[in-house]
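Milestone 3.1: sequence recovery, worked example.
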């Protein structure tokens, strides 16, 4: 029979191994750290509005995860958001004329960067800048525009637009008794 001390030692080692396994699982699931980071290259895109995009947001192409956002800073001269993305090295054949868009996962989900490939025969490399960037569609702004349009149905965005209704005045002021104009 095993001694009480040996049994307690085995139980202690088992609990220690379980705690370590839970910590590794928690870090792996949360994505806070990766023990084996894949090799990647950095690409930059400038956006007018990034919405709720965050560092570590996914970068996808065709719905497939190809990288993540590594930093977001404000350019002090253009006042645009400069988004730096790390793209996995195994996706090294992305055309350099590709476009970047900030999309939302679902109706109210998190934002992510979607790359749309184009047709160039040269590819993105470390330090490349994506020239065509489409900003995020902000749901609050869209609802605000809809409410404004519904609240002001006669207003046109063109200030020189004329109304389709004729002017009110005394055009047919003189009428005969049977209703015909003179």
């Amino acid at each position: 029979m095993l001694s009480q001390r040996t049994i307690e030692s085995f139980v202690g080692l088992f609990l220690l191994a379980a705690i370590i396994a839970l910590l590794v699982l928690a870090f792996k699931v949360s994505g806070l750290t990766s023990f084996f980071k894949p090799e990647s290259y950095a690409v930059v895109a400038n956006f007018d509005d990034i919405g709720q995009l965050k560092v570590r947001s996914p970068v996808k192409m065709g719905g497939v995860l190809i990288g993540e956002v590594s930093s977001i800073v404000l350019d002090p001269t253009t006042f645009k958001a400069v988004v730096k993305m790390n793209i996995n090295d195994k996706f090294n054949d992305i055309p350099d004329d590709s476009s970047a868009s900030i999309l939302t996962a679902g109706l109210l989900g998190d934002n992510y960067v979607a790359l749309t490939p184009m047709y160039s025969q040269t590819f993105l490399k470390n330090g490349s800048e994506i020239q065509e960037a489409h900003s995020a569609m902000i749901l609050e702004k869209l609802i605000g525009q809809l409410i404004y349009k519904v609240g002001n149905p006669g207003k046109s965005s063109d200030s020189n637009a004329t109304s389709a209704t004729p002017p009110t005045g005394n055009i047919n002021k003189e009428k005969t008794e049977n209703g015909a104009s003179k």
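Residues 4-30 form the longest helix (27 residues). The first strand starts at residue 40 and ends at 47.
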